């Protein structure tokens, strides 16, 4: 069909051959194999002392002339068991500053629900208003 494209209309040739025009214009894209990318990813990951994730590895690969998506880098890392040091969640203690003034425990949890109320604790809050 490409040899006769200068003589005949593409849509007419497709109609005669009973093909869709998209079949004529479709060009298969050669996919990059992960064989040449995998050693580069391993090298960059080891050079970073297992710190780099997909974003930084993508930047380093771009410097070397490889254009690879973060998703593909992630798949290669997962297949080789590479996990960044910073992706592992680390425990951070919570600092609670909302109750600086501690309330004294006057009852020492010595109360019985069956007995009559012996202690009653009430806190009043006064709010001044302009009226």
Could you describe the largest sheet, including whether it forms a barrel? Answer: none
Give the CA-based shape: elongated
Order of helices and strands: HHHHH
Terminal CA distance: 92 Å
Radius of gyration: 35 Å
- Sheet-strand content, in percent, reads under 5%
* Content-based structural category: mainly alpha
Mean pLDDT: 83
Spans of at least 5 consecutive residues with low confidence: none
What's the number of extended β-strand segments? 0
* Count of helical regions: 5
Task: Specify the helix fraction band.
Answer: 25-40%
Characteristics of this structure?
131 residues, mainly alpha, 36% helix, 0% strand
Write structural notes for this entry:
The chain is an all-alpha fold and 131 residues long. Among the domains are: 1-29, no CATH class; 34-79. Helix content is 36%, strand content 0%. It contains 5 helices and no strands. The longest helix has 14 residues, at 34-47.
Write the layout of secondary structure elements.
Blueprint: H1 10-17, H2 21-25, H3 34-47, H4 54-63, H5 70-79
In short:
This protein is mainly alpha-helical and 131 residues long. The chain has helices spanning 10-17, 21-25, 34-47, 54-63, 70-79.
